[in-house]
From TrEMBL:
Known catalytic reactions: guanosine(966) in 16S rRNA + S-adenosyl-L-methionine = N(2)-methylguanosine(966) in 16S rRNA + S-adenosyl-L-homocysteine + H(+)
Organism, as annotated: Vibrio ishigakensis
The enzyme's E.C. designation: 2.1.1.171
Molecular function terms from GO: 16S rRNA (guanine(966)-N(2))-methyltransferase activity; nucleic acid binding
Protein name listed in UniProt: Ribosomal RNA small subunit methyltransferase D
Similarity annotation: Belongs to the methyltransferase superfamily. RsmD family.
Function in brief: Specifically methylates the guanine in position 966 of 16S rRNA in the assembled 30S particle.
Stored CDD domains: AdoMet_MTases
One Pfam family cited in the UniProt record for this chain: Cons_hypoth95
Lineage, uppermost ranks: Bacteria, Pseudomonadati, Pseudomonadota, Gammaproteobacteria, Vibrionales
């Protein structure tokens, strides 16, 4: 799946690097979620400065947001705070509340020693890399 025309969800956006990169590659829509008020304010300022009409920045808790049903996204970035045990809930909510398009890509960035929760059987590891203390994994979602 190509980034152009994709709908992207950036959970735990932080500085927004992943979401801004997707927007720069012509994603149709990027939704960034950041709970920290200061980080959210900086993201909103950056979006305004860049005149990035395809980026929406929400000052919300990612888990609370995912508890509702939503529109399916083509590309989801998951970069939760380290050592908080949030990944299992995020994965379950993405699947159970229909946040993922049938052929979605899911990017997970986590501490390298973290053992991933049991992932859905239709998530297939596409690429993996370790740099320093961080493990990057890209999964393809292939539904039946």
């Amino acid at each position: 799946m190509d980034v152009p025309r994709a709908k992207c969800l950036d959970l735990f956006a932080g500085s927004g690097g992943l979401g801004f990169e997707a927007a720069s590659r012509q994603a149709e829509k990027v939704t960034m979620l950041e709970l920290n008020k200061e980080a959210h304010a900086q993201l909103a300022k950056n979006v305004s400065t860049l005149k990035a009409d395809n980026i929406e920045v929400l000052n919300k808790d990612s888990l609370e947001f995912l508890k509702n049903s939503g529109e399916p996204y083509d590309l989801v970035f998951i970069d939760p705070p380290f050592r908080k045990g949030l990944l299992d809930d995020v994965v379950n909510l993405l699947e159970s509340n229909h946040w993922l398009a049938d052929d979605a890509l899911v990017y997970i960035e986590a501490e390298k020693e973290l053992e991933l929760p049991e992932l859905p059987s239709h998530w297939h590891l596409h690429r993996e890399k370790v740099a320093g203390q961080v493990r990057f994994q890209l999964f393809t979602r292939q539904t039946l």
